[in-house]
Amino acid sequence: MADPGLLVAVSPGWHALIWAAAFWSGWAPADRLTWFLEAAPALVIYVTLIAYGRRFRLTPLAVWLCLALMLVIFVGGHYGFAAVPGFEGPRSIPGGAGHRNEFDKFAHFFQGLVPAIVFRELLIRLRAMALPLLLPVVVLALTLSLSALYELCEWASHLVLGGRADAFIASQADPWDAQSDMAMALLGALAALGALSRRHDAALAALGHDAAAKNSFDKAAIRG
Q1: Burial annotation 12-35 (CB, 10 A radius, 16+ → b, else e)
Q2: What is the distance between the alpha carbons of residues 92 and 174, in angstroms, rounded to a whole number?
């Protein structure tokens, strides 16, 4: 029987959670256009994991972190990243518009934490680092680049859609929103490297000893 790849690397509950969250998120969202713009990255992540699951099975740690990021995205897409209940913070919005909603910053933290582990795994398993000591630096650079790319997409949406993109951008009248978003992503990446590297190394070692987990991208034994 052919190896079904990622489809058996995670439990059926993993897929059930994704589909349930996507259905709930897309059912009567606050704004349909905003939902499409916000949910698109989660759908891309899911399709990519499934499409490449047979050839490149990520560690369970990376897969479940991707699930967490997708759930965060679906929640933000349903309400709007500047209007998720329970995330009203102490900081006031300039102009007396009330307190800003911090869910956007929470999401950008995950936007750094999860890709950092995925980038780390790809770099290790593809033997892309000649100097292992530079691994954290390259992971941080790639994660910050991804965050900057997302901010450029937000800017492009404003150029194309004008005011209709305001809910998607979720700047909440903060002129430094893009910079603070990238800072939160960087903080998330630092947290991932500091708190999860040992666990990730153990997961990589376990994957390397699982014959069913071998894939066409691996050219050598996975580093433990």
Answers
A1: eebeebbeebbeebeeebebeebb
A2: 10
Mean pLDDT lowest for which of 42-46, 50-54, 81-85? 50-54
* CA 132 centroid distance within chain: 24
Mean pLDDT of all residues in 16-30? 95
Q: What span, in angstroms and rounded, lies between the C-alpha atoms of 131 and 168? A: 40
What does the pLDDT read at residue 93?
73
- What are the contacts of 17-25 at 24+ separation with CB within 8 A? 17/67, 17/71, 18/46, 18/67, 18/70, 21/70, 21/71, 21/74, 21/75, 22/74, 24/74, 24/78, 25/74, 25/75, 25/77, 25/78
Quick check: 177 and 171 in contact, CB under 8 A?
yes
Q: Where are the domains of the chain?
A: 6-83+102-213
Q: Which residue has the tokens 């800017």?
A: 155
Q: Are 46 and 63 in contact (CB under 8 A)?
A: no
Asked if 52 contacts 9 with a C-beta cutoff of 8 angstroms, the reply is no
CA distances 18 to 15, 39, 63, 71, 154, Å, are 5, 12, 12, 7, 25
How does pLDDT run across 163-188, given as a tens digit for each residue?
Answer: 999 999 999 988 899 999 999 999 99
Coil, strand or helix at 191: helix
